[in-house]
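Following up on my earlier thread - several people asked me to post the actual chain instead of describing it. Fair enough. Here it is, all 377 residues.
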Amino acid sequence: MRLNPAKVAAGITGTSQEIYSQGLCTRDTFPGLPFGISALQGGKVQDIVDAGCFETDLREAPMAERERSSQLDPRVERVLYEVSRQVVGKHDAALRILCAVVAGGHVLLEDVPGVGKTLLAKSLASSLDLRFSRIQATSDLLPSDIVGVHIYDPSRQEFDFRPGPVFAEIVLVDEINRASPRAQSALLEAMEEGQVTAEGHTYPLSDTFTVLATQNPAEHEGTYALPSSQLDRFLFKLHLDYPQPREEEELLRRMSSEIRPQPLTAAITRQDVLSLRREALATHVSQPVLSYVQEIARATRVHPEALLGASPRAGVALLRAAKVWARLHGRGHVLPDDIRDLAHDALAHRLHVRSGRPEACLDDVLASLPVPRESRA
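Reply from S.P.:
Thanks for posting it. Predicted structure:
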């Protein structure tokens, strides 16, 4: 889907939010849309199409794309729209990270430098109105640099605790595999228990505390591989990949423009995030879908290439994420497709195989199991 520059220049257009809310296209279909016309107001969606502002009629978009966009919860649409003002593309990654935040999980972003991991994390935090902090992992990073430190106050003759960056709500740990095992272990209690301990005192973290950790798969010198126990603490492992040609062209256009996008504003609040979490907990899971999750987990353990299959915790994590995924798409029940959509993100990084890639093992498992019929009962 491409904008017709002549028509847009004539001012016959509307807001990108209007277009998306009508389900006429998705951000994946035209990733540059928000930046290109969000500043131009007026006109209805039908006027935009009839006036030929798009070189391809948006109504000709595949039905699946229109249904996918229209099914998203309005709160989710607002968040993704706000993120797209800063981040070109990455619609699916933003949605999956949002799923992890609502589910109370953590995300490992594995990709090469410069593909937008930090910008995506910061943009999502701003859109959710959550406090953001960043930890740059290095070999000399200490646990106190993460958790915080007690400092003596001579006026009161006692020690005060100065919280570290882990007390934010969205914590980006950049290049986590460059931190020493001692520093990595400081995150384990925080990620699993939602609290930290310093000098014998326990301090609770926010209900929306989420770790977004990054690592570079192409460079291993001076790094410490994450152990299985820590990998298991991540709900998802995601890959952003390089942008598509049109997305990269739009990125270059933005960077060369004298016009800079306005700072992001909160699309929803922390209370909205917690409300989505409560709604997700109430999302119905039928017995066939429940059995499907169990069969997937068991099949990864008996696969010929498997050295270490999915643990019971992995199955619980997949089901929890699927309930949130269903709720983000405006449904009160989990479908088998929700399980399949998230299986690679939630399970692949927990598997160890004899040869090849864990993703291939998981592909075999999903292909070998019959998919239960969709049921709302």
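The chain has 17 helices and eleven strands. That should answer part of your original question.
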